[in-house]
């Protein structure tokens, strides 16, 4: 049995350089000693999206400072760390390689064990760090590049029950924000505009609604918003009220799809797991959205499921989730040597066949 384990986590899979110190106590509780995130928004803004080469260079320049800040605000030296956890995929190859090379350097210099972590496992296991979730549970992982329902059976056993067949919701938020002339990342910008808008003025499609199963689709929704915006714009700029109403209608449609398909996934989860299947968590960047959280919480309340959503800053990319997932893997006996490589594509469930067309586009795929 392990006593307290302390990890330094490193995350650099997309456009956030992050480092964090997390302790797991013997009773399973977590102590997030620090969580530092250096966003790169300002670097990518002129290009309207994440530029992989720019991201990789920025990670390389910032990782050292970021990790020092994480250790410093945790009040620790590297010598007090038990293991190093680093995101090894999925994500942008340049950023992943920058993080892995940095972590290998720390491991070589300190003699500490190195653990490669799947970024999606980091998201899916966050509820264990923040709320002490017990296995098994159902997770909806909904982010910039991914959207999937997972039966999480252990820290290294994930069964995908369904997911998006095209875009991820975060990607749809980001692309729709661009159409509406809002800032990136699009999710928080659309959420802020939606708060001022009327969500019933536009009735956007709910793709795959009424169909069996818990697969989802979001690309038609994005196209519907684009068409409506073009119709309203008459070649000029959109009125502020239109932007708010379009945002509210879009957000409502995303929330409706997630709620309907979560109900279907919960049934599939119950059928597969039985009695123990009563806990649901939502995770990933889109889980920071208030309307999405509230609607899913209401669904769980009406169906007798326990609802867990990590605080918004642990839904969006961070390194605390990587440190925690590294500790979980370490406890299961996983170790990675200096042969650890980047895996730009790395499905959590490596057994189920891929969902047609999913997770293949965008910087976060
Ligand atoms: O998990 P994350 O930080 O990175 C990935 O692993 O993809 O998720 C980023 C995505 C972006 O598409 C962003 O627009 C979306 O999460 N997002 C939100 C909100 N905050 C971030 N979407 C809707 N509402 C939000 N408040
Ligand atoms: Zn993420």
Tell me what you see in this structure.
Helices cover 43% and strands 18% of the residues. The strands form two sheets. A five-stranded mixed sheet has the order 3-2-1-4-5, sandwiched between helices. A five-stranded mixed sheet has the order 8-7-6-9-10, with helices on both faces. The longest helix is centred in the C-terminal third of the chain and has 34 residues. It starts with a strand and ends in a 34-residue tail after the last helix. Bound molecules: 5'-O-[(R)-(carboxyoxy)(hydroxy)phosphoryl]adenosine (KG4) and zinc ion. 5'-O-[(R)-(carboxyoxy)(hydroxy)phosphoryl]adenosine binds next to helix 5 and helix 6.
Mean pLDDT: 95
Q: Span between N and C termini?
A: 37 Å
Shape: globular
Count all strands and give the number: 10
Bound molecules: 5'-O-[(R)-(carboxyoxy)(hydroxy)phosphoryl]adenosine, zinc ion
Low-confidence stretches: none
Structural category is alpha/beta
Seen as an oligomer or otherwise, the chain set is single chain
Largest sheet: 5 strands, mixed
Rounded radius of gyration (Å): 20 Å
The fraction of residues assigned to DSSP E strands is 15-25%
Order of helix and strand elements from N to C terminus: EEEHHEHEHEEEHHHHEHEHH
What share of residues is helical? 40-55%
Identify the strand order in the major beta sheet.
3-2-1-4-5
The number of helices is 11
């Amino acid at each position: 049995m392990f006593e307290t384990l302390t990890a330094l986590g490193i995350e650099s899979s997309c456009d956030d350089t992050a480092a964090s110190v997390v302790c797991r106590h013997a009773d399973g509780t977590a102590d997030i000693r620090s969580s530092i995130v250096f966003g790169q928004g300002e670097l990518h803004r002129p290009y309207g999206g994440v530029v992989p080469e720019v991201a990789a260079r920025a990670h390389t320049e910032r990782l050292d400072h970021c990790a020092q800040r994480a250790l410093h605000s945790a009040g620790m030296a590297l010598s007090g760390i038990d293991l190093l956890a680093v995101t090894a995929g999925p994500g942008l190859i340049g950023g992943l390689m920058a993080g892995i090379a940095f972590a290998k350097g720390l491991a070589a210099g300190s003699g500490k064990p190195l653990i490669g972590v799947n970024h999606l496992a980091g998201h899916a296991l966050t509820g264990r760090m923040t709320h002490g979730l017990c296995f098994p549970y159902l997770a909806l992982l909904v982010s910039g590049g991914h959207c999937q329902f997972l039966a999480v059976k252990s820290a290294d056993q994930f069964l995908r029950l369904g997911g998006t067949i095209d875009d991820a919701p975060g990607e749809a938020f980001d692309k729709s924000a661009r159409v509406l002339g809002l800032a990136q990342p699009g999710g928080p910008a659309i959420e802020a505009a939606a708060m001022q808008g009327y969500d019933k003025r536009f009735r956007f499609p709910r793709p795959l609604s009424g169909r069996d199963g818990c697969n989802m689709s979001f690309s038609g929704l994005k196209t519907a918003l684009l068409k409506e915006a073009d119709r309203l714009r008459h070649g000029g700029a959109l009125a502020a009220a239109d932007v708010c109403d379009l945002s509210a209608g879009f957000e409502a449609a995303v929330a409706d799809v997630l709620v309907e398909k979560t109900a279907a996934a919960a049934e599939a989860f119950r059928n597969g797991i039985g009695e123990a299947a009563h806990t649901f968590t939502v995770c990933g960047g889109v889980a920071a959205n208030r309307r999405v959280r509230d609607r899913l919480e209401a669904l769980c309340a009406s169906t007798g499921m326990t609802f867990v959503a990590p605080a918004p800053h642990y839904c969006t990319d961070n390194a605390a989730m990587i440190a925690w997932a590294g500790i979980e893997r370490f406890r299961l006996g996983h170790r990675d040597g200096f042969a650890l490589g980047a895996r730009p594509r790395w499905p959590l469930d490596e057994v189920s066949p891929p969902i047609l067309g999913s997770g293949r586009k965008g910087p976060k795929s």
